[in-house]
Specification:
The chain contains 20 helices and eleven strands. It folds into two domains: 290 residues, Beta-lactamase (3-Layer(aba) Sandwich), CATH 3.40.710; 163 residues, no CATH class. The protein has 489 residues and is an alpha+beta fold. The chain starts with a helix and ends in a 5-residue tail after the last helix.
């Protein structure tokens, strides 16, 4: 693909969506701070609110570092709310395992001399060094796959087949399912969704403000309609909220709208669980967070309650899937339960940080860097079931294209990140102007010390490492060569 063709293609896409937005959206209600590009970062991955940059993907509230978690004897669980309405299907209908396998101890770091470490530090951008240093010191906690399509043999592959917590990177599955439903005309992307309905899926203090920022940006851009004082956004903008700002409420609305069976079938159809890869069942974020802790259960019981699900018992795994669905249904449909839960979270800040980290490491949805690298390569090359479904995914996933810093280096950038306590994930594809083949980088970190996790959410060294590999494919083969010469002690 020539540079001229890419420019024309990009301009045509922008023009098309500008016309569509004028035709289908009314003026906004109120203005809000607009996300801007980070001047020092070639690929913006954060939303800027005032002067503080925070990762746009939802994460749980973080507190000071907690002591190590010991396995505890399971207690009898607190009762879940009785909900007499139509029950959603449990997660884990077709994906096996429903829950990730118990995490093994991480292997020791690479045996590396001071001279080699110094040479690596000289080659890697300073902003990216903490991410590479962590990789060298605790390689078992990192999944990295980076290659340029057509040059896979020169790529970097570290724990490519090891399941890792995905955080919001799992929303790529929902995006594909949505695009395919639009392509088959099962849903209308211009359908208006009341913001009040989306609010039923919103769990305060558990998304770093992502949902509220997404609504504010849509208001500023004039994409919120107000028929009869009932503000609405298009179904298509709900998908945009899920990817651009990583709104959990938007993701869960689409997840349940499309159905649990379809979400899992999409993951299987995309090959995310094909050997040697595995993928645990994607469950609603709302349901997962409510299982983690809720106002009906004493916080002192949280770890004991969760440990029974992490034990690998198939009966308990199935019970977990039902519990996630039931709690989400109760929150969405029972006003009394929802209000009590919100009051409890606003008063207590929700589950303790040790509970959050335990849940993230043991129960949150997991997949492999290798499988998601293959998915990103497939999306970058329009490899879904039809040209239209590929286009529907790419026009949402490539939201970073609007930033000038990206336009200088790339014709197209697709991106999704994720954040949960101790976990930071990122998945990219990018077309450099002088290359016809995309570069793929997927980088998953788990078990980050709490202070490191909090610092990285601001400094984003993992994204800086990914950017370095994206901007210069030669750096991939160089890093592959260096890592190939290293071995654990």
């Amino acid at each position: 693909m020539t540079r001229e063709y890419k420019v024309v293609f990009g301009l045509l896409c922008v023009a098309f969506w500008a016309i569509l937005s004028v035709a289908c959206h009314n003026s906004g209600i109120e203005a809000a701070v607009s996300p801007t590009s980070l001047a020092a970062a070639p690929i913006p991955t954060v939303a800027t609110v005032d002067t503080v940059a925070t990762v746009a993907t939802p994460a749980l509230i973080d507190e000071p570092a907690a002591p190590a978690i010991e396995q505890v004897e399971p207690l009898t669980p607190s009762p879940t709310p009785v909900y007499s309405g139509l029950l959603s299907p449990p997660c884990g209908l077709s994906l096996d395992p429903l829950l990730p396998p118990r995490s093994a101890a991480s292997p020791a770091g690479f045996g590396i001399s001071d001279a080699t470490r110094a040479e690596l530090q000289r080659m890697v951008p300073a902003a990216a060094w903490p991410a590479l240093q962590r990789l060298l010191d605790a390689p078992g906690t990192v999944g990295l796959v980076a290659f340029q399509v057509g040059r896979e043999a020169e790529g970097v592959y570290l724990n490519a087949d090891a399941p890792m917590p995905l955080a919001s990177v799992a929303k790529l599955i929902t995006l594909v399912a949505y695009a395919e439903a639009v392509d088959s005309e099962e849903i209308n992307p211009l359908e208006q969704v009341p913001l009040a309905e989306l609010d039923l899926y919103y769990l305060p203090n558990f998304d770093l403000g992502a949902h509220r920022r997404a609504v504010s940006e849509l208001q500023e851009r004039g994409r919120v309609a107000s028929p009869d004082d009932n503000p609405t956004v298009s179904l298509d903008d709900v998908a945009w909220m899920m990817i651009r700002h990583s709104s959990n409420a938007a993701a869960d609305y689409l997840h349940l709208r499309l159905g649990q069976a379809r979400i899992e079938e999409t993951a299987i159809a995309l090959g995310l669980n094909e050997s040697p890869h595995s993928h645990s069942a994607p469950c609603t974020f709302l349901g997962q967070f409510l299982v983690m802790g809720n106002h009906l259960r004493s916080s002192a019981d949280d770890l004991a309650f969760l440990s029974r699900f992490a034990g690998g018992d198939p009966v308990e795994s199935e019970r977990y899937g039902r519990e996630v669905a039931l709690l989400a249904d109760a929150y969405i449909n029972r006003d009394d339960f929802r209000e009590a839960e919100r009051e409890w979270r606003l008063a207590t800040r929700g589950p303790a940080i040790e509970t959050q980290r335990y849940f993230t490491g043991q129960l949150a949805t997991q997949g492999t860097a290798g499988a998601y690298a293959s998915l990103m390569a497939r999306l970058a090359q329009n490899g879904l079931g039809s040209p239209n479904s590929s286009y529907q995914v790419r026009r949402i996933l490539e939201w970073p294209n609007v930033f000038e810093a990206n336009q200088e280096l790339f014709s197209n950038v697709g991106y999704k990140n994720g954040s949960l306590p101790g976990v930071l994930t990122t998945a990219y594809y990018a077309y450099r102007w002088d290359d016809a083949a995309p570069v793929i980088v997927v980088l998953f970190y788990r078990d980050l010390p709490q202070q490191t996790y909090r610092q990285w959410r601001v400094g984003l060294p993992h994204d800086e490492l990914a950017r370095w590999l994206l901007a210069d494919p030669a750096s991939i083969s160089m890093l592959a060569t260096v890592m190939g010469e290293l071995s654990p002690p």
